[in-house]
Amino acid sequence: MRLSKQSNYAVRALIYCAANPTGLSRIRDIGTAFGVSEMFLFKILVPVGRSGLLETVRGRNGGVRLGAPADTIRIIDVLRVTEEDFDLTECGRETCSHCPLGAGCIYETALGEAMRAFAQVLESYTIADLVADGEGIALALGINDVPARPSAARTSPPWAARALADRSGH
Question: CA–CA separation, 45 vs 27, rounded Å?
Fold first, then answer.
């Protein structure tokens, strides 16, 4: 089994955004860090943005940032947006109705159990877990080398204001 490039780079883009202390990242900078084109990343990040995992800020100093706190975005959430399905084979689908083994097939049962275990592990990791060493990640991705943009420092995602209000009891 192999995850698609879309899934791989969508998770990496979210890691970049989580490790960026300004909170706002340009697709160009993410592409440079991972060696992929802006067009490829843009194509990947559109559905991630529609899902709410990523937020787009338009304008001259715009960019992308996490659409929710990093500790609430699970890897499996990203994969559910970027992967077509998690079927290892056509077993269990209508297209496999010709199989003589039928509904009691142990092979299909084993594959289903394996996929549930796979999903369970990916549900246990968040983007925050992947950037636990924020400074090391930022250094490795060259984030500290990217000049800060004035509007990026003044903006904060909507969930940040809600989190602060929740903590202060308002």
Answer: 9
Measured CA to CA, the distance from residue 150 to residue 32 in angstroms comes to 21
The model's pTM: 0.79
Q: What is the torsional sign of CA 100, 102, 106, 109? A: positive
- Tell me the two tokens of residue 112: 């289903």
For residue range 3-17, list pLDDT tens digits in order: 899 999 999 999 999
Separation CA 31–CA 40 (nearest Å) = 9
Measure Cα distances from 68 to 18, 61, 114, 120 in Å: 10, 21, 29, 21
Counted residue by residue, the chain has a size of 170
Sign of CA dihedral 31, 37, 39, 41: negative
pLDDT score, position 87: 74
Task: Tell me how far apart the alpha carbons of residues 74 and 55 are, in angstroms, rounded to a whole number.
Answer: 16
Distance, CA of 66 to CA of 107 (rounded, Å) = 39
Decide: helix, strand or coil at residue 58: coil
Q: How far apart are CA 99 and CA 71, in angstroms?
A: 43
Query: One-letter amino acid identity for 158?
Result: P
Tokens of 7: 């899934």
